[in-house]
Amino acid sequence: MRHLYTFKLIEAVARAGSMRKAAEDMNLTGSALTRRIQRFEQEFGAKVFERLPGGVRLNPAGELLLHHYRATLSDLARVQGQVADLAGVRRGHVSIACSQGMLPYFLPEQIARYRTEHPGVTFSVNVRDRTEAEQELASYASDLALVFEPVYLVDFEVIHVIPQEVHVVMAADHPLAKKKEIRLRDCLDTPHVAPSAQYGVRYLLDFAARRSSRRVSPVVETESFELIRHYVLHEKLIGFQIPIGLKSSEAGIVHRPVSSRDLSPGSLILGQMRGRTLPVASARFAMQLANTLKDYPAA
């Protein structure tokens, strides 16, 4: 336990890339920070930083050490949660990395439901794209990830997965709103606003368009799904999103699925870092999410 503060300082230096900047962030003098890390390196038996012309960065030994520190914090949080349960006190903290589509409706409902039974539990919700969410798990920055079409799945242990169709979002009076499902060619022939390339919805659209020798050519491209939902009300164009991020009726907006003949559903995946034992609060919240997703519609 006595080294945890030193580990925290090492993490701060790694994040800042500079001893001076890290010392400012941690309210220490630069000399005090340097001495503390040097004493630790002597006791540890190895250097943990590589000196660069413009600062410092972790060397391989430092990377291993920082991974150990984050794993230790995770294990400590898990034990603290178990001790709190023994005392009949439900406390803890849940951190989750998620796609933007989870923010408007699904996650607020799930967090509020969980906190009704466990008001001592706090949450961090980190909005990440499908690559960043997996990195959050590997670095212990998030306990859970709920993300559409993750990329690598190397260190990703799947807890639950459900299909989600890509939907066309548009104003209620748009000509395409009369159709029950919409062909991809109609989408590509209609002016559209689309998510940026790092998002799962765009990946599926680009892949399907290439198969038909077409291209997704948005008039507006954005990292914000909220902008997509609102912008379709300003122009006679369409946007794209997954249904878990939409309501069946939303002021002036309707949504219809892209035909499965043209575009197969993607996967919304709930997961954690492979081999990690989650803290009690996070494990219970993951169980709640998995049970809810089992009955969640694909469209």
Could you explain the architecture of this structure?
The protein is an alpha/beta fold and 299 residues long. It folds into 3 domains: 4-64, Arc Repressor Mutant, subunit A; 90-162 and 268-294, D-Maltodextrin-Binding Protein, domain 2 (3-Layer(aba) Sandwich); 167-264, D-Maltodextrin-Binding Protein, domain 2, CATH 3.40.190.290. It has helices at 4-16, 19-25, 30-44, 60-86, 106-117, 132-138, 184-189, 200-211, 225-231, 280-294, and strands at residues 49-52, 55-58, 91-98, 120-127, 144-148, 156-164, 167-171, 193-195, 220-222, 239-241, 253-257, 266-273. Helix 5 links the parallel strand 3 and strand 4 (120-127). Helix 1 (4-16) packs across helix 2. The radius of gyration is 23 Å and the shape is elongated. The N and C termini lie far apart (49 Å). The model has no long low-confidence stretch (mean pLDDT 89).
What labels would you give this structure?
299 residues, Arc Repressor Mutant, subunit A, single chain, 10 helices, D-Maltodextrin-Binding Protein, domain 2, 40% helix, three-stranded antiparallel beta sheet, alpha/beta
Layout of helices and strands, plus pairs?
Blueprint: H1 4-16, H2 19-25, H3 30-44, E1 49-52, E2 55-58, H4 60-86, E3 91-98, H5 106-117, E4 120-127, H6 132-138, E5 144-148, E6 156-164, E7 167-171, H7 184-189, E8 193-195, H8 200-211, E9 220-222, H9 225-231, E10 239-241, E11 253-257, E12 266-273, H10 280-294
Parallel strand pairs: 3-4, 3-5, 8-9
Antiparallel strand pairs: 1-2, 5-12, 6-12, 7-10, 7-11
